[in-house]
């Protein structure tokens, strides 16, 4: 039963079972976005059955009982527990901070501030500094902040994000010294991988359509190849989570079952839940069984299958048959 509960909901149920003090202690070690997601899931809980609570706690207890106190690979153990509780993306970010042992407090403090305030703090800095700051944040928050950065600087900042790779300790030290004057002290422990095409695309994917068009045009004028690389990464399989149920159902009618199974082999629990919830219970059960029975699939095959589904979704969206959401789209006609 626990396998059918989403990661955030499992985490919320587990946290609620710890009591106020225990939950508070755990939340202290999480980042702002993780706190927000789990907090939202906790606030949304209502009438949780005893069976569901027992399933979540039982799965956790069983997992722990199967581990030897001597032979356990502690890093692998922590990774699996966090993935089970938070989902792979959130768990990876949290694990990185745990293993790093230190955090850039100046940067971390920005993540808790209002996007307008953050934009005001960093807008006076060099575009490279702004790019590094945004690259350390989750895409949705970075997109909000970018919308409050002066329009003339947006394309330059996004280009710098797209071409960022590793940031040296000295660069992060310098950044924290700048932030220290306004926020807090911090030092960097090691070289940190930030930025890149995917980060730039994720941020651009979440700004409103007018801003996206303007930024893309400006980048294209300066570097058409870079603009194309960003564009190619902008709409990924996980973006289908933003589609409404009617849109998902329409897409599923156009996709072969074999293609969907391969695509879902590389999807997270949230994406699988989205798909299964838009099928009949019998069809969803059959799909789960087929997915479990499917052996290992090459990553390339997963990407091809997901791209095929994305092509269907894009075609239907362009025809006005479905709405994919995102990109600041809040208008309806």
Q: In a nutshell, what does this entry contain?
A:
This protein has 333 residues and is mainly α.
Question: Overall mean pLDDT score?
Answer: 75
Number of helices: 19
Number of beta strands: 2
The H-level CATH homologous superfamily of the largest domain, spelled out, is Flagellar motor switch protein FliG, alpha-alpha superhelical domain
The profile of the biggest β sheet is:
2 strands, antiparallel
CATH fold field value of the largest domain: Annexin V, domain 1
Strand content: under 5%
| CATH top-level class of the largest domain | Mainly Alpha
Radius of gyration: 21 Å
Neighbour order of strands in the largest sheet: 1-2
Terminus-to-terminus distance: 41 Å
- Share of helix among residues? 55-70%
User: What oligomeric state is this?
Assistant: single chain
Q: Which CATH architecture of the largest domain is right?
A: Orthogonal Bundle
Shape: globular
Point out poorly predicted stretches.
67-74, 97-104, 184-192, 326-333
Question: Can you walk through the features of this model?
Answer:
The chain has 333 residues and is an all-alpha fold. It folds into three domains: 2-100, no CATH class; 105-234, Orthogonal Bundle (Annexin V, domain 1), CATH 1.10.220.30; 237-318, Flagellar motor switch protein FliG, alpha-alpha superhelical domain (Annexin V, domain 1), CATH 1.10.220.30. The protein is 67% helix and 1% strand. The chain is built from 19 helices and two strands. A two-stranded antiparallel sheet has the order 1-2. Helix 9 (139-146) crosses helix 12 (197-204) and helix 10 (151-162) runs antiparallel to helix 12. The radius of gyration is 21 Å and the shape is globular. The two termini are 41 Å apart. Mean pLDDT is 75; it is low at 67-74, 97-104, 184-192 and 326-333.
